[in-house]
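ok new one. same drill as before - structure tokens go in, u give me an amino acid for every spot. 249 of them this time. try not to just spam alanines like last time pls lmao
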């Protein structure tokens, strides 16, 4: 949690926006997460909608609004994504496979940084690619530490099970074998922000024949180490938490 500034209305508004890093939330969910009184949350959320810092989706839930995107663009490139370049290159070279960073946006996960294997058969995922949250080790990682309601919602139609996500939480990493695409395997680990929330997933992916049917056994250690390095970067530079923030613990 961020330290309070002493300006109550600002601190409470920031609490509401922080809660929405995990995705859409109802008024009741915002009250539960922030611990604020329902009338206070309703009043502040309505004001934030008016100024386009928040919006409402088709189900009436609150979501991050377009004004924050506009301000983020004005601030320049995402600091964590820029700093992550050397980490992804090192991970690619250590594993021989393409490496990526994903963050969640609604019901999709977006590749925000990547380092592709330069030659040979590879899993090519360009920056900006939108992939499903229903399959793949990065989707597992981005969903595994969600609260119960979002976990249940995220599992609808997913190619992984609650047991798989329990294993991700226990081990601290996820793996997939042909979940997203036949013949492709991947290993992912969580990147956490200063508050401990999962804000992104770092991954490697490539042909099943190279990663084997137990890619986690082969590569989990180096992927987890890369994720920890990225986590340390975020904690040294808290502003980067907002650049990749989509999940809370």
């Amino acid at each position: 949690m961020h330290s309070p500034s002493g300006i109550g209305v600002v601190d409470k508004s920031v609490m509401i926006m922080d809660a929405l890093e995990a995705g859409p939330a109802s008024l009741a969910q915002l009250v539960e997460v922030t611990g604020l009184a329902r009338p206070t949350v309703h009043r502040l959320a309505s004001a934030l909608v008016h100024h386009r810092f928040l919006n409402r989706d088709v189900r009436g839930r609150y979501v991050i609004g377009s004004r924050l995107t506009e301000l983020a663009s004005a601030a320049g490139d995402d600091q964590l994504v820029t700093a992550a370049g050397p980490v992804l290159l090192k991970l690619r070279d250590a594993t021989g496979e393409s490496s990526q960073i994903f963050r969640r946006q609604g019901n999709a996960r977006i590749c925000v940084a990547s380092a592709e294997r330069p030659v040979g058969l590879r899993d090519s995922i360009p920056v900006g690619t939108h992939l499903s949250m229903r399959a793949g080790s990065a989707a597992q990682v981005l969903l595994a530490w969600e609260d119960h309601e979002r976990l249940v919602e995220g599992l609808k139609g997913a190619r992984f099970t609650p047991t798989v996500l329990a294993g991700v939480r226990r081990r601290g990493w996820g793996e997939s074998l042909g979940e997203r695409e036949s013949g492709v395997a991947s290993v992912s680990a969580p990147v956490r922000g200063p508050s401990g929330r999962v804000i992104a997933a770092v991954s490697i992916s490539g042909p099943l024949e190279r990663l084997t049917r137990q890619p986690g056994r082969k590569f989990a250690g180096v992927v987890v180490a890369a994720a920890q390095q990225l986590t340390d970067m975020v904690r040294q530079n808290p502003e980067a938490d907002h650049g990749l923030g989509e999940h809370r613990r």
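The chain has a mean pLDDT of 87. and btw The beta strands are 54-56, 62-64, 98-105, 108-115, 130-132, 174-177, 184-192, 198-207.
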